[in-house]
């Protein structure tokens, strides 16, 4: 554990749901969701989270545990204590925006997958940290994925640049691109087929996938 860090965290809940994004999309997961500013939060001490994880994992079948929500790597000591105590019998996935690459090594021993999700809401520094997070996961020997959730105005050149940078960071990166969902979610513009062709020429393990919408799909 990291000295001086609080052993409690504000969680938006520990719901069961279906992963909406990334290489494990469609998997039934138990989510440990860190609360955002606009969400109702409950303070959990590590022992309370341990008990809840054990209770739910014993009661129902899950593919994995997903640690997600706002800034989970801001509470590494809390997470490490909870996962050490709960000893999940299923894999644990971290879904992060990549803003704290220096905090990731302390948690790598608990993780089966590090998912870095980029929603294109930050600047260049945010993108650089996301790529650095992939490097940290790769160096630590943990499976890692870059999940790109472009906006309507996100350019192909930006997406291809991130594919190139992710490939340079680690050839083992799994890259998943979730196109914006329009009025007809079943139809994709041919642009995306062309983009995928270009992306795969740089990094073979790149795929397009439709996100699973709420309320079934969670993150």
Entry keywords:
alpha/beta, eleven-stranded mixed beta sheet, single chain, disordered N terminus, TIM Barrel, 31% helix, 219 residues, 5 helices
Describe what you observe in this structure.
Helix 1 (46-59) crosses helix 2, helix 3 (124-139) runs parallel beside helix 4 (156-169) and helix 4 packs parallel to helix 5 (191-202). The protein is globular, with a radius of gyration of 17 Å. Mean pLDDT is 92; it is low at 1-6. It has a single domain (8-218), classed as Aldolase class I (TIM Barrel, Alpha-Beta Barrel), CATH 3.20.20. It has 219 residues and is α/β, with parallel strands linked by helices. 31% of the residues lie in helices and 24% in strands. The chain is built from five helices and eleven strands, in the order E-E-E-E-H-E-H-E-E-H-E-H-E-H-E-E. The protein has helices at residues 46-59, 76-86, 124-139, 156-169, 191-202, and strands at 8-13, 16-19, 28-34, 42-45, 64-69, 92-96, 113-118, 143-148, 174-177, 206-208, 217-218. The longest helix is centred in the middle third of the chain and has 16 residues, at 124-139. Strand 7 (113-118), helix 3 and strand 8 (143-148) form a beta-alpha-beta unit.
What profile does the largest beta sheet have?
11 strands, mixed
Sequence stretches where pLDDT stays below 50 over 5 or more residues: 1-6
The CATH topology assignment is TIM Barrel
Shape: globular
What's the CATH first level? Alpha Beta
Helix content: 25-40%
List the quaternary state of the chains: single chain
The assigned CATH architecture is Alpha-Beta Barrel
- When the domains are counted, the total is 1
Q: Give me the secondary-structure category.
A: alpha/beta
The portion of residues forming beta strands comes to 15-25%
Radius of gyration: 17 Å
Mean pLDDT: 92
Q: How many strand units?
A: 11
Order of helices and strands: EEEEHEHEEHEHEHEE
Tell me the CATH superfamily: Aldolase class I
Q: What is the count of helical runs? A: 5
């Amino acid at each position: 554990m990291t000295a001086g860090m609080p052993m409690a965290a504000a969680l938006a809940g520990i719901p069961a749901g279906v992963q909406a994004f990334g290489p494990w999309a469609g998997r039934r997961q138990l989510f440990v969701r860190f609360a955002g500013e606009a969400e109702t939060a409950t303070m959990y001490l590590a022992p309370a989270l341990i008990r809840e994880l054990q209770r739910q994992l014993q009661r129902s079948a899950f593919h994995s545990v997903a640690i997600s929500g706002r800034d989970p790597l801001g509470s590494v000591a809390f997470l490490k204590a909870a996962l050490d105590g709960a000893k999940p019998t299923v894999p644990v996935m971290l879904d992060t925006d990549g803003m704290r690459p220096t905090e990731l090594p302390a948690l790598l021993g608990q993780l089966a997958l590090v998912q870095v999700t980029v929603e294109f809401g930050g600047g260049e520094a945010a993108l650089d940290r996301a790529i650095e997070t992939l490097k940290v996961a790769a160096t630590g020997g943990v499976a890692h994925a870059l999940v790109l959730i472009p906006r309507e105005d996100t350019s192909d050149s930006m997406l291809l640049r991130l594919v190139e940078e992710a490939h340079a960071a680690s050839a083992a990166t799994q890259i998943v691109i979730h196109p914006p969902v329009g009025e007809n979610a079943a139809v994709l513009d041919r642009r995306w087929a062309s983009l995928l062709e270009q992306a795969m020429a740089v990094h073979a393990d790149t795929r397009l996938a439709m996100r699973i919408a709420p309320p079934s799909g969670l993150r």
